[in-house]
Amino acid sequence: MSITRSRIVSTGHYLPENVVTNYDLEKRVETSHDWIVQRTGIHQRHIAADGQTTSDMAIKAAKQALENSGLKPEDIGGVIVATATADRAFPSVAVAVQHALGTQFGPSFDVSAACSGFVYALSTADALIRSGQVKRFLVIGAEKFSSLLNWEDRRTCVLFGDGAGAVILEACEGTGTNADQGMLTSHLHANGQYQDMLYVDAQSGFINMDGQEVFKFAVNSMSKIVAETLESVNLSPSDIDWLIPHQANVRILEATARRLGMPMDKVIVSVNKHGNTSAASIPLALHTAVSENKLTRGDLILFEALGGGFTWASALMRY
Ligand code: UT7
User: Fold this and answer.
1) What are the Cα distances from residue 51, in Å, to 57, 125, 202?
2) Rounded to the nearest whole angstrom, what is the distance from the C-alpha of residue 50 to the centroid of ligand 1?
3) In contact, 289 and 92? CB cutoff 8 Å
4) pLDDT bucket at 227, cuts 50 / 70 / 90
5) Catalytic positions, please?
């Protein structure tokens, strides 16, 4: 029996021009290139210019995804933007993208699930596509985390960066788990018991994080959700062609891969160049993999992420 699925048509990205290296940060706080690389794998991050907004970055990434698809703006039925750093409380970044591109007047809204936001957005778009409401979505992760950083706090300011990544997701027909293209399954979770482990302080507006606790939870929850996802469609870790995880810390990626018995050459790593860009990190990593011609149509790819909340999520699809 053939069923409607959603598949990735194209990707796009945008990274601000300003590259800040670890050596630049050595001049601002008591840190070192070696400490940052050893503990996180990060070498550099992109930081938005003053006045450059999350919408500006989302629009640029969306335009590139559209260009790479050969589609026209009127072919796009809706926009979902995952972000924790919208320009304004409302209206959403998504309506700014919709307006800038002149897409159809379908659903356009933001999703707030911190670093898991892109996978939440992808899963939501997939559900709306499968229900027949929308044929094609622009799904974007866009963040200006530099606006949440205390540049005197070495525990957080070295970790994050700005940027945006976009995909066009469209309806396709598919059967079974091994045939065709498209999303096979997605899994979304949250546990608000952990709200105070990783949050933006309402008074200062700065990010606060209990790094070690987040690290432990991330490694555990990522291994568990990967197992849960694969079991739900009777596949195993050896079936995965590419793991495209949220890019917070290369040590988390290595620990997750180790637990799954996956070699690191199946894991897409971009945290070294981008830092942690929260909801933008997965679509940026995906775009990097596509640009480097790593992915082949039909490859099984697994997205997974953990973010403040905690929220955690996965999506398994044939590219
Ligand atoms: O995206 C959402 C999910 N976020 C994450 O997954 C992040 C998870 N956590 C992490 O990635 C890691 O916990 C961090 C990278 C944040 C921190 O690494 P760590 O190995 O857990 O370091 P730590 O917090 O245990 O700190 C070790 C030492 C401390 O010094 P003392 O107390 O041992 O003397 C820190 O004060 O390193 C010190 N330190 C630094 N030193 C140089 C903390 N930040 C820095 C720094 N440069 N930037």
Assistant:
1) 11, 30, 22
2) 28
3) no
4) very high
5) 115, 246, 276
Which of 27, 38, 39, 207 best tests ligand 1's pocket when mutated (most atoms within 8 Å of CB)? Answer: 39
Going along the chain from its start, the domains and CATH numbers come out as: 3-176 (3.40.47.10), 179-318 (3.40.47.10)
Predicted structure pTM score = 0.97
Number of neighbouring beta carbons within 10 Å of residue 63: 18
309 lines ligand 1 (CB under 6 A): no
Q: Is the CB of 249 under 6 A from ligand 1?
A: yes
Q: Is 91 in the pocket of ligand 1 (CB under 6 A)?
A: no
What are the tens digits of pLDDT across the range 161-217? Answer: 999 999 999 999 876 655 578 999 999 999 999 999 999 999 999 999 999 999 999
Distances (CA, A) of 93 to 87, 110, 223: 7, 7, 32
Q: Each residue of 38-56: pLDDT tens digit? A: 999 999 999 999 999 999 9
